[in-house]
Amino acid sequence: MAQTPHRPSNGRHHVVVIGAGFGGINAVKKLKDADVEITLIDKKNHHLFQPMLYQVATGVISAGEIAPSTRQILRHQDNVSFVNGEVTDVNIKDQTVTAELDGAVRTYGYDSLIVAAGAGQSYFGNDHFAEYAPGMKTLDDALEIRSRIISAFEKAELEEDPAKREKLLTFVIVGAGPTGVELTGQIAELAQRTFAGTYSNFGSSSAKIYLLDGAPQVLPPFGKRLGRKAQRTLEKLGVDVRLNAMVTDVTADAVTYKNMKTEEEVTIEAATKIWSAGVAASPLGKLIADQAGVESDRAGRVSVNEDLTVGEYKNVYIVGDMISLNRLPGVAQVAIQGGNHVGKLIEAKIDEESTANEAEPFEYFDKGSMAVISRFNAVVKLGKTEFAGFPAWISWLGLHIFYIVGFRSRTLVALHWLLNAFSRDRGNLEITQQQRVARNVIDRDLH
Ligand SMILES: Cc1cc2nc3c(=O)[nH]c(=O)nc-3n(C[C@H](O)[C@H](O)[C@H](O)COP(=O)(O)OP(=O)(O)OC[C@H]3O[C@@H](n4cnc5c(N)ncnc54)[C@H](O)[C@@H]3O)c2cc1C
């Protein structure tokens, strides 16, 4: 028998929000004082600050510092209920959303829907690469990558065969966007600085780190000048940067790429491979686009109206990484500002005295882009202003601390960065038994 959709018993306007990431959480906060009842649904129990996942993956900070509990963040907001469950279906004609947690299924009826389910990794049709080259989108990914990296060093310590040892100490990062560049810089510092003198079977310069990208420069959104600076900084750290390198295969033991200039095929033997080359919007995007009769692009992003509604459905909004609108990039600020915007529009719609435009177009204010290359070194692009090095690094620190949710997390992260800047040690290099699954992959790969 079909379930009667859950609705708030007080009869208030019911807003269902899918996703407690940057877009969802900001929409919910914007509606704090509105006369609405909100159900926020997320498959994770925490709000993840993705821009710092690479620091979890390389042991600088702990997982909890960038993933505060969603319930705790919203503890002081009375008009929101949090549901920890995965949305498996949305029906925009019936105005229902179905969520599931470990077999428990519940359907919610809504008056307004905000979809902010973000994006996952894309392997451009080669999903089998994922087993050997995990992406970095979730805490699980970051912890698994940390385990793979550290396990590779530990195995190398025991390996007598020089060829196998070299393979264990070879790390290939695919994708030279901000995530790939940041992760590469941190792996290089981990190998050369943190691990210096801690292994007896090999020296700190034994690790080989490759950064591959099919594009002709690193950090394409930052322009040629900053891209060149970032590349030089990585090369000074000993990273082998290979551009115009289109990856064609990833196996247990190796990565193969085609040099787009010379057509040459090159294979690099490596135990640890990490994928940061592409994104695909949540499949909920295509589901909704098909129902609304609007287009979704190859990355699954939905063509939304200027006010972030979908097709004729004026009560369905999409924000953040799932939208295709005016070539907006998939960055945190697009999601934060989009969440605030739709919160404002919903408030205007239900407030009968409001004279605000209920269909006001979304206008994105570009606050610039930044990426850290290594300790004390970053690149910043703010409109036409570009700078790099230490001043950029300080700006990055300040801004990221500002945007991390919660006083406690902010303080802990600031403290860990300070310690990391002046000490070789990192406080989060532990691998749990559970994460040793990754080590088993490496075991199997080598035999
Ligand atoms: C490693 C990494 C580094 C980055 N660095 C930067 C950076 O330096 N600067 C920058 O501006 N941007 C950066 N970004 C991009 C930025 O994090 C995203 O643009 C931003 O998170 C998008 O916000 P969102 O709300 O659309 O999605 P998200 O923040 O991804 O939130 C989506 C939420 O939806 C939930 N969800 C998904 N599907 C379902 C479902 N079916 N049911 C229930 N819940 C669901 C997820 O659990 C998640 O909590 C980075 C991204 C990554 C992965």
TrEMBL record:
Ranges that cross the membrane: none
Record keywords: FAD, Flavoprotein, NAD, Oxidoreductase
EC number: 1.6.5.9
Stored Pfam families: Pyr_redox_2
Coiled coil: none
Keyword flag Methyltransferase: no
Reaction catalyzed: a quinone + NADH + H(+) = a quinol + NAD(+)
InterPro entries hit by this protein: FAD/NAD-bd_sf, FAD/NAD-binding_dom, NDH-2
Sequence ranges assigned to domain FAD/NAD(P)-binding in this UniProt record: 14-339
Any GO MF annotation of the entry: NADH dehydrogenase (quinone) (non-electrogenic) activity
Top-level EC class as recorded in UniProt: oxidoreductase
Family in the record: Belongs to the NADH dehydrogenase family.
Protein name as catalogued: NADH:ubiquinone reductase (non-electrogenic)
